[in-house]
Design goal:
This protein is α/β, with parallel strands linked by helices. About 55% of the residues lie in helices and about 15% in strands. It has eight helices and five strands. The protein has a five-stranded parallel beta sheet, sandwiched between helices. Helix 2 runs antiparallel to helix 3 and helix 3 (about 60-80) packs parallel to helix 5. The radius of gyration is 16 Å and the shape is globular. It binds thymidine-5'-diphosphate.
């Protein structure tokens, strides 16, 4: 089963992913992320998130994310699914639609076609969207700054950029309600894990029943 975690920067999806993974007991897991889930992806991640790449053309940026995804799906995600593992992926195709589409203005229909190509047609079974007001996400990121090395070029964008990304994600969640589970990221981590665990278990049971 393939599960993705989406949300604006600072929404806490990485923490949820890791804590949820710890709650899965003996279940064989593959934890991965985009960009940077494959060997090629690690190099692409350095380029795409580098502060010096700030002036990158929206379409150039798009193709870097897509190249990362194409290699990642082929090299990491598909083999893990074939081994019967539960795959948790930090960001996936919805990030492209929210960031390069909603926020950077690239055409959604084109992005969907390119996403399908890059993902080899692989869609998530379940997507957790951590929804959080931008001001709160920013506050969290500032608190993190002291302890964690920031590599996020995207941290530099203004609030309206992140508002558009957030709206883009919420719109996707509405249009694909059967796949998305929207979580209030302002809740405590304990509550988030509990809710996410319940949804995930229900989805796994449903998949097994088929
Ligand atoms: P990352 O440091 O992983 O941020 P976060 O911890 O918030 O996930 O940086 C990934 C950045 O790349 C993030 O700002 C979103 C952006 N991104 C896109 O713009 N398009 C994409 O397709 C993907 C996968 C990520």
């Amino acid at each position: 089963m393939f599960v993705t975690f989406e949300g604006i920067d600072g929404s806490g999806k990485t923490t949820l992913l890791q804590t949820l993974a710890e709650s899965m007991g003996e279940c064989p897991l593959c934890l991965t992320r985009e960009p940077g889930g494959s060997a090629l992806g690690k190099r692409l991640r350095e380029i795409v998130l580098d502060e010096h790449t700030k002036g990158l053309e929206a379409s150039a940026e798009l193709f870097l994310f897509l190249a990362d995804r194409a290699q990642h799906v082929a090299e990491v995600i598909k083999p893990a699914l074939e081994r019967g593992e539960l795959v948790f992926c930090d960001r996936y195709t919805d990030s492209t639609l929210a960031y390069q589409g909603a926020a950077r203005g690239l055409d959604q229909a084109t992005l969907m076609t390119l996403n399908a190509l890059a993902s080899h047609g692989l869609e998530p079974d379940l997507t957790f969207l951590l929804d959080l007001p931008v001001a709160l996400a920013k506050k969290r990121m500032l608190q993190r700054k002291g302890t964690v090395c920031q590599e996020g070029r995207f941290d530099g964008y203004d609030a309206s950029f992140h508002e558009t990304v957030r709206a883009g994600f919420l719109d996707l969640a509405k249009r694909h309600a059967e796949r998305f589970c929207v979580l209030d990221a302002a809740s405590s981590l304990e509550e988030l894990v509990q809710t996410a665990h319940k949804h995930l278990q229900a989805r796994m049971d449903k998949k097994k029943a088929f």
